[in-house]
Amino acid sequence: MTGVSKLTTPCFDPGKIPAAPNDPLYSLVSAYEADTSADTVDLGVGAYRDENAKPWILPTVRKAKAILEKDPRHDHEYLPIAGLPTFNSAAQSLILGADSVAIKENRVCSFQTISGTGAVHLGALLISKFAPRPSPDVYISSPSWPIHDQVFTNVGLPVKHYPYFRKDTKTFDVSGMTQTLNSAPKGSIVVLHACAHNPTGVDPTSDEWIEIAKIMKANELFPFFDCAYQGFATGYLSQDNFAVRYFVEQGFQIAIAQSFAKNLGLYGERAGAFHFVASPSSNASSTTNRVASQLSILQRSEISSPPIYGAQIASIILNDPQLLSEWETDLLTMSGRIKKMRKCLKEELDRLQTPGTWDHIVNQIGMFSFTGLSPAHVHELREKWHVYMAETGRISVAGLNDHNVAYFARAVDNVVRRVL
């Protein structure tokens, strides 16, 4: 056939897209579900489990759902781009404190998001679009939640890491972190876990947070808080937001990603929020309004309108003093059971005289524990004992219960003695 010209410029060819690696945690879930042994133990899942290793619907959530179903105004209409207003304002108060000066001075704008991941992503998009070029570095703890690196690199922001965890002592590496932040270029973004650090379970003390804030202010670094476990770490909402409140009190301009997946057990409902807080100034309110206008455009092009059901459940609880009080009781139930399992695991390992020291199991906080087990140990636990956990040695302590904690301790004792 004549007169047909060949393409001379490159074109998009899906056939040349390489296969991406499987997500390691989701692959772990699949392997666990395929294991037919009667002795399987799932310590990889990042979700709370009750004493019978089952998902737990919080009693407060059950009450909120009943209230919602009886409300004649309840429907399935679209929410505004920014989300459910009563949810956003209550989420603000929860993370910043009801008496927050920033809220009173209209220095905060909030957008409902697809849980915490969506909040991190929305904030990363905002930074990527309006940060100066070349883009500032984003400093993420080493180790951190793996999605942090993915979210920021996917929007074109360069990622660096600051030391966070000392493997030798299994404690917070305060000197490593502060030294790195002291040398970070001005204007860098620093991702901070507000409480119950994932995956290590190690948090800075109040004094260490104050020192971190001092260094970040001196170096003009931008704090980006990720808060997925407020109230789930210590059991008290007002304790777990200390770092965020302190940074705001110190006049920082900050971003906050907030999730209600863990602390309300609304995993699949994807209820979260992104907050921007402007620093105090005569034009702070104007800054907040301009940021909100740009977030609206980003949100509109990403998800258009956030999901309504989980936000409605959370809003009912957050805005009802009685339900809010009952929720705090639920949080104490979850955090208390996890603390109990930490204690039981350490006692079993001590009873077996398992080589090594295991104080870090009870000294860490929140859902996860960095056990110190090596990838070789993890592999042996999976192959011989049908125990499923992250290759890093991180376990979800919520996966332990009175029925399996002794079994897991025996398994750990066995592999530690066998595998160097």
Automatic annotation (TrEMBL):
Gene Ontology cellular component annotations, sorted alphabetically: cytosol
GO molecular function: L-aspartate:2-oxoglutarate aminotransferase activity; pyridoxal phosphate binding
Tree of life domain: Eukaryota
Keywords: Aminotransferase, Pyridoxal phosphate, Transferase
E.C. code: 2.6.1.1
Alphabetical list of Pfam families matching this protein: Aminotran_1_2 (PF00155)
Record GO biological process: aspartate biosynthetic process
EC category: transferase
InterPro entries attached to this UniProt entry: Aminotransferase_I/II_large, Asp_trans, NHTrfase_class1_PyrdxlP-BS, PyrdxlP-dep_Trfase, PyrdxlP-dep_Trfase_major, PyrdxlP-dep_Trfase_small
Family recorded in the similarity comment: Belongs to the class-I pyridoxal-phosphate-dependent aminotransferase family.
Misc. remarks from the entry: In eukaryotes there are cytoplasmic, mitochondrial and chloroplastic isozymes.
Quaternary assembly: Homodimer.
Protein name: Aspartate aminotransferase
